[in-house]
Design the sequence.
């Protein structure tokens, strides 16, 4: 189910052509997901630099520590592998990088996604000297998903749906956030592993398996859009904002729902209904040819009409794929034209310090003439009310 | 149990003095853990830039999105808060950063940890213009842990020890990696949450709670030092390499053990005994005044003497704290002098493609005249042999 070698090669060809189009001799990429995107080589970043280099003629190479040498040599994206014994080691890894670039014949203008390997986990190292930022090329390419990528996102949605179903089933007054999250996530993940079998790979720097949870967005705490888990005990009357996903071969979907424990109050119902209308409006606005900004503006019009600005906290949504947030953004400041193959989360929210947070998030693919909902969990208040 | 406000203020004072010592008017830090270190403000990085700025006179300020405004204003480290509505938004967040620097009176030479907010999660933005790298000052400061930090690392070790105890207890032939990891981690984490109570905070970008697991380092797969989980089913005769930790208020310990299912073979015993001797030698070499490189060289001497180079894959260890790897490194290329308050993982390993991996990792604090083992799980082969 992973992205096949032919698709990886096509990605590299496209990137090499874009580099040549900018008059660059090649580029070096340090970002773990950029490397994964072009090579299928997955790693968790540490202080030991890893980089993928691509010459404008299409030849690829990798810089790896000794630990990863066999792994890199087995990768079909790569004709040259440079390695270093260790970090810091006796010879700085950036010396091996220079040799790699020379071996690939990258002698002219160099593109890169950063000025050298970033200083993470104690790594210290020099910049690249002269270089040109090309992360925009990578980002633009990653923004248009292929059929195989959308299939992986559909697979992610399926297991997120299972985790969320269990989360809703197990949530009731008196039990704690952690207890419910752990049970729902454990069971959903076990089912996913048994269903897909040993070929399954998460390949995610963020998540190790299918999960659903609350991140502390419970009751009045749900007024904080990105709260952190606090192991809160559920009470009747709580408004809950959920989150569920599952990493599959590096791809992530997003499913979020607003739920209420017991019969909703009038104010809970009012905010829920506005949130539902906002999300429907946003999805109805998305289609090829429309600017991302236009979707945010349409939604902002609804906040205007219904006097909801005190409940606004964030824009409508963002693209999603190998990163759980990525560009373009459904934001009035993003003029990017929406195109088939883009995949967005759509999640306008309403937040009240006294009542809580109200947000659904669905993962929506742009098709030739409209959208396809990749997530399919019920959205209506009746289905999301937990009976006491 | 979190680091108190007085200690956070002392950290900022020390950093401000170091900035002044370099002739800088102030600095801006984008790294999530650098911000956390100086302010106690924890966030998970996204496309919405967050930054902490410190003037050389000691005044602090933060740049945050609207979402985090109340959270930032409540922080005692900060006298100025600049915010932007959203990313991308109508006004680029870096304009608000410029205003923040002006409000703090940072007008001369600027220090920073990166050339602007890094391009993650779809963020795109300009560099800082003229700036000086000061991440080395931050790293040097973070390398010396206070008594309160070491207390948090001890707390982390305690819950890692519980998770590891359960991991060992539940591991047996026929059950799968995921099943055992999930059960051990869930129970250990639930116990930690119930023991520490509602004041517990993980504040980790890496881990959400106490855990122990295998990352696929089972049988011959254990020959890959940083394998990824594959949901392998345990078999008699397997060599296993474990890993356990628990995030507590942003701090992480590291505990790893080599275990064998059933009576060890002669070759398993031979490699285990060498690994045990290597780790003992490494710990015995660590003391104030010795160079980090010296520890690696002593261990390398043992590989020489016993003809073990084909089983070598990595250096002896690394510092640990807010990041699960950080500098300095117990590596022949790191001349840093070992000082009281440094905390290292000590984990020389031996790897055989036919037998598997052999590595213990302990978390060791440097004291005034030697070391203190913060981890305390049994290290001997008898205790780590799983009886059939």
Sequence:
């Amino acid at each position: 189910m992973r992205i096949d070698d032919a698709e990886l090669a096509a990605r590299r060809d496209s990137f090499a052509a874009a580099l040549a189009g900018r008059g660059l001799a090649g580029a070096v990429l340090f970002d773990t997901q950029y490397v994964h995107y072009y090579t299928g080589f997955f790693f968790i970043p540490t202080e030991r630099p890893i980089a993928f280099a691509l010459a404008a003629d299409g030849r690829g190479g990798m810089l790896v520590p000794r630990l990863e040498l066999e792994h890199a040599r087995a990768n079909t994206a790569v004709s040259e592998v440079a390695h270093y014994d260790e970090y810091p080691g006796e010879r700085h890894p950036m010396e091996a990088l220079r040799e790699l670039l020379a071996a690939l014949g990258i002698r002219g203008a160099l593109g890169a996604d950063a000025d050298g390997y970033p200083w993470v986990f104690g790594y210290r190292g020099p910049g690249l000297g002269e270089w040109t930022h090309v992360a925009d090329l990578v980002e633009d390419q990653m923004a248009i998903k292929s059929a195989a990528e959308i299939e992986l996102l559909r697979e992610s949605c399926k297991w997120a749906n299972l985790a969320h179903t269990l989360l809703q089933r197990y949530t009731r007054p008196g039990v704690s956030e952690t207890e419910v999250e752990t049970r729902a996530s454990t069971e959903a993940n076990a089912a996913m592993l048994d269903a897909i079998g040993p070929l399954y790979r998460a390949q995610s720097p963020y998540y190790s398996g299918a999960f659903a949870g609350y991140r502390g967005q419970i009751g009045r705490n749900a007024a904080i859009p990105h709260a952190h888990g606090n192991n809160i005990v559920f009470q009747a009357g709580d408004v809950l904002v959920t989150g569920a996903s599952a990493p599959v071969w590096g791809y992530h979907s997003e499913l979020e729902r607003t739920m209420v424990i017991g019969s909703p109050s009038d104010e809970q119902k009012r905010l829920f209904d506005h949130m539902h209308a906002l999300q429907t409006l946003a999805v109805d606005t998305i289609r090829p040819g429309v600017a991302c900004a236009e979707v945010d503006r349409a939604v902002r019009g609804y906040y205007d009409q219904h006097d909801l600005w005190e409940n606004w906290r964030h824009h409508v949504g963002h693209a999603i794929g190998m990163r759980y947030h990525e560009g373009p953004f459904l934001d009035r400041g993003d003029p990017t034209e929406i195109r088939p193959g883009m995949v967005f989360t759509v999640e306008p929210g309403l937040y009240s310090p006294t009542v809580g947070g109200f947000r659904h998030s669905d993962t929506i693919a742009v098709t030739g003439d409209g959208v396809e909902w990749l997530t399919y969990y019920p959205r209506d208040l009746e289905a999301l009310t937990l009976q006491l």
Remarks:
- The domain at 147-386 of chain A is CATH 3.90.230.10 (Creatine Amidinohydrolase).
- The longest helix of chain A spans residues 147-170.
